[in-house]
Design brief:
The complex is a heterodimer of chains A (508) and B (141). Chain A has 508 residues and is mainly α. Chain A is 77% helix and 2% strand. Chain A has a domain of 213 residues. In chain A, helix 10 runs parallel beside helix 12 and helix 10 runs parallel beside helix 20. Chain B folds into 2 domains: 96 residues, Helix Hairpins (Orthogonal Bundle), CATH 1.10.287; 27 residues. Chain B is built from 5 helices and no strands. Classes of the chains: A mainly alpha (508), B mainly alpha (141).
C-alpha cells in the first residue's frame, strides 16, 4: 500500500480538512434556503464552493506524494466507524468537482437568470450545493455504504436541477423522469451489490472489505456482488449500452447545470467504478480481468465509434456534445480496461481533461443560448463575428475534444495510445486515432457554422458579459495550459494510478 | 436442488421474485405512476434482502440489559443491516416523492402521463424542430 497512513489525531483545523470538504457545501445548502434571500443565494453558493475548492487544493498537496489520510468521523476508528480516506486518486476528483463548481457558478448567475424563473433561484442554488456535496462525499468517503448515500444525494438533486430546464423546453421534465427511473435502478443494483459484499465479508469499510476478499478469494457471492456493482455504477457512468438517459438530460437541462454535470457527475461515477474495481475487488481475480477484457473493452470501443458517429449527424449543438460525452467516456473506460499503470494514468488524466473540455463547450453553448435563444446550428451561424470571445473558446474546446497537440485532450489520448502499444494492442491504438477523426468531423461542423456562414435573421448578436466570458476563458486557458504543462496532471494521475494498482502488485 | 436447500434460502427466493416483479413493472408498464409503483416494489425487495441477512439463528433482539450484565451465552441478531435499510428507506421515499412531483409537472405540461403519448408528443416536437432547422439552413445555403 501507500508510503504511510496518517493517523487520526485531530488537533488543528488542518486535520479536519477531509470532513470539511463535504461539510462546507452541505451546511451552505440549507443556509441558502433558511436565509431565503434571492440576493444572497448566489454569493453563499460561490463562497461555499470556493472554500471547498481551497480545501481540495490543500488535500491534494498533502497526498500527491502517495500518502493516505485516514479521517475517523466522530473519532470512531474504522472498521466500525465511518472513515474518510483521501489518497491521490480521490483528491484529484475532489479538486475537479470543487474547481468546476466554483468556475461554473459565476457563469450560472446570468445563465440561470434567463432560464429559470426568479422565484426558484434560492432553491436552485440549494440543490446545486447539495449536488456538489453528494459528488464530493462520494469521492471522499472510505465506507462503501456511504458511497451509496452520497450518490443518491447527488442524484436526487441532479434530477431536480435537470427538471429546471422545463421553463425553456418542457422535455426537460421527461428527461429528468427517465433519468430518475434509470438512476434509481442503477443505485438499487449498487445497493444489492453492497449487500452481497456485506454478506461475504461482514464489513462495510472499503479497506477492510478488500483485505477480507483477498483472504477468502473469489466465490459466487463476491462474483455476483461485482456484477451488480458494475452494472449499477455503469448506469451512472453511462457506459455504452446503459447511456440512454444521458443525451436528453444534457440537452434539456439548463446550460449551467449541463456544464457542471457533464464535467463532474459521470467523472465521479467513473471514480467509484475505479475504486471498486481496483481497491476493493482485486484485478487478480479472473472474473474481473475477463469482465474488463471481454465486456468493458468492446463496449468502450463501440461507444467511441457509435456515439461519435451519432454526434456527426446531430443538428443540435448541445445534443451533439452529449453524444460526444458518451464517446469520451468510452476512452476513459478503454484506459481502465488496459489494466496497466499507463492505461489507468490515461483514464484518470482523461477524466480530468475531458471534464474541463466539456465545461468550456457547454458553457459556450450556454452563452450562445442566452443571445440567440437556440442551440441548433442554424441559430449559431455567424456567431464567430458576433461573439468572438465565446466562439474562440468553443474552438479551443473543440480542438481539445479532438485531441489536437497543445490542448489537454491530446495529452490523455497520447498516454492512452502509449498504453495500448505497451500491451501490444496496436489495432486498439489505431481505433483510438480513427475515432478521433470522427471528432474532427463533428467539431468542424460547429466551426463551419460559427465562422463560415452569415448570422440568421433576427438574431440579437452581441458578446455576453464578462461574468460569462471570464469562466469560459478560464476553462479554455486551462485546456491549453494542461496541454502544454503536462507534469501536473500526469504526475497526479500516475500517482493515483499507482495507488490504485498498489494492492494488485502486492497480490502478485 | 433439495427441498432443504429451497426452504433454507426462502428469503432469497422471495427477494428474487419481488425484485423481478418490480423491475418488470418498471420496464413493461407505460403509465408513469405505475412505473414508480414498480420501482417501489423493486426497492422494497432489496430492503428485505438486507434485513433477512441480519437474522442470526437463535438470536434475540440486539438490546443489552439495563445493568449491562451481558451474558456471553446469549446470541444477538445483527442490527447493522436494519440501520442501513433505515437510510435506504429514506432515500426511497425521497425518490418516490420526487418522481411523483415530476409526474404532476409532466401532466401539467404534456396533459398525459402515458409513455406512448409522451413519446408521440416528443417525436412531433423533434420533427417540427428539424423542419424549422432545414428551412433555415436551406434558405441560406
Amino acid at each position: 500500500m501507500a508510503a504511510e497512513t496518517t493517523q487520526h489525531v485531530a488537533m488543528t483545523l488542518n486535520d479536519h480538512l477531509p470532513v470539511l470538504q463535504v461539510l462546507i457545501p452541505f451546511v451552505a445548502a440549507p443556509l441558502v434556503v433558511l436565509i431565503g434571500s434571492r440576493r444572497l443565494a448566489w454569493p453563499i453558493a460561490v463562497a461555499a464552493s470556493a472554500l471547498a475548492f481551497v480545501v481540495a487544493i490543500l488535500l491534494l498537496m498533502q497526498v500527491i506524494d502517495g500518502s493516505v489520510i485516514s479521517y475517523h468521523i466522530g473519532g470512531w476508528a474504522p472498521p466500525l466507524g465511518i472513515e474518510y480516506r483521501i489518497d491521490a486518486a480521490n483528491a484529484f476528483v475532489l479538486l475537479l468537482v470543487s474547481g468546476i463548481s466554483t468556475i461554473v457558478l459565476p457563469f450560472a448567475r446570468e445563465s440561470i437568470k434567463s432560464e429559470v424563473p426568479a422565484r426558484h433561484h434560492t432553491l436552485f442554488y440549494a440543490c446545486y450545493l447539495l449536488c456538489v456535496t453528494g459528488l464530493l462525499g462520494v469521492a471522499a468517503t472510505g465506507d462503501a455504504f456511504n458511497v451509496f448515500v452520497f450518490l443518491e444525494i447527488s442524484s436526487l438533486s441532479t434530477y431536480v436541477l435537470i427538471a429546471q430546464g422545463s421553463y425553456r423546453d418542457k422535455r426537460a421534465l421527461t428527461a429528468a423522469y427517465d433519468y430518475l427511473i434509470m438512476g434509481t435502478i442503477g443505485a438499487t443494483f449498487f445497493v444489492i451489490g453492497l449487500g452481497l459484499l456485506y454478506m461475504a465479508t461482514g464489513t462495510l469499510n472499503m479497506v477492510d472489505i478488500s483485505e477480507r476478499i483477498a483472504e477468502q478469494g473469489s466465490n459466487r457471492t463476491v462474483r455476483s456482488a461485482f456484477a451488480f456493482i458494475v452494472v449499477g455504477v455503469g448506469l451512472k457512468v453511462a457506459i455504452f449500452p446503459l447511456h440512454k438517459w444521458l443525451p436528453n438530460a444534457y440537452t434539456y437541462a439548463p446550460s449551467a447545470v449541463t456544464a457542471f454535470l457533464a464535467a463532474t457527475a459521470t467523472k465521479v461515477a467513473v471514480y467509484v467504478l475505479l475504486r471498486f474495481m481496483f481497491s476493493i475487488f482485486q484485478p487478480a481475480f479472473l472474473f474481473e480481468v475477463n469482465t474488463l477484457e471481454y465486456i468493458i473493452l468492446p463496449f468502450a470501443i463501440i461507444a467511441m465509434f457509435a456515439a461519435s458517429f451519432i454526434a456527426v449527424f446531430q443538428s443540435d449543438f448541445k445534443r451533439m456534445l452529449a453524444y460526444s460525452s458518451i464517446a469520451q467516456i468510452g476512452y476513459i473506460l478503454l484506459g481502465i480496461s488496459f489494466l496497466s499503470e499507463t492505461g489507468l494514468t490515461a483514464a484518470i488524466a482523461h477524466l480530468f481533461n475531458h471534464g474541463i473540455t466539456k465545461a468550456v463547450l457547454f458553457m459556450g453553448v450556454g452563452a450562445i443560448v442566452l443571445r440567440t435563444g437556440g442551440t441548433f446550428y442554424d441559430r449559431i451561424t455567424g456567431m464567430g463575428q458576433a461573439m468572438p470571445w465565446t466562439s474562440g473558446a468553443i474552438v479551443v474546446g473543440g480542438l481539445s475534444l479532438i485531441g489536437v497537440p497543445g490542448t489537454a485532450g491530446f495529452i490523455s489520448k497520447w498516454v492512452l495510445v502509449q498504453g495500448a502499444l505497451e500491451k501490444g494492442w496496436w489495432p486498439v491504438a489505431l481505433l483510438i486515432v480513427l475515432s478521433s477523426l470522427l471528432a474532427v468531423i463533428y467539431v468542424w461542423r460547429v466551426i463551419e457554422a460559427l465562422y463560415l456562414s452569415q448570422p440568421a435573421d433576427g438574431v440579437d448578436a452581441s458578446e455576453v458579459s464578462l461574468w460569462m466570458i471570464a469562466p469560459i476563458w478560464m476553462m479554455a486557458l486551462a485546456c491549453i495550459y494542461f496541454g502544454l504543462a503536462t507534469d501536473i496532471t500526469i504526475t497526479a494521475a500516475r500517482s493515483a494510478a499507482h495507488g490504485l494498482l498498489a494492492g494488485v502488485v502486492a497480490l502478485h | 436442488m433439495s427441498w432443504e436447500f429451497f426452504v433454507g434460502h426462502i428469503n432469497y427466493w422471495l427477494f428474487t421474485f419481488l425484485m423481478m416483479t418490480g423491475l418488470y413493472i418498471v420496464v413493461a408498464k407505460g403509465n408513469l405512476v405505475k412505473k414508480i409503483v414498480g420501482l417501489n416494489i423493486f426497492q422494497t425487495s432489496v430492503f428485505m434482502l438486507y434485513i433477512s441477512t441480519g437474522k442470526v439463528t437463535g438470536g434475540t433482539a440486539p438490546i443489552f440489559p439495563v445493568d449491562m450484565q451481558i451474558d456471553p451465552e446469549v446470541v444477538y441478531s445483527n442490527p447493522l443491516p436494519h440501520v442501513l435499510i433505515l437510510t435506504a428507506i429514506v432515500v426511497g421515499i425521497a425518490t418516490t416523492s420526487l418522481g411523483l412531483a415530476l409526474i404532476v409537472r409532466i401532466r401539467e405540461d404534456f396533459n398525459t402521463i402515458e409513455e406512448d403519448d409522451l413519446v408521440e408528443i416528443e417525436k412531433a416536437l423533434a420533427r417540427d424542430e428539424n423542419e424549422l432547422y432545414h428551412q433555415a439552413i436551406g434558405d441560406r445555403v
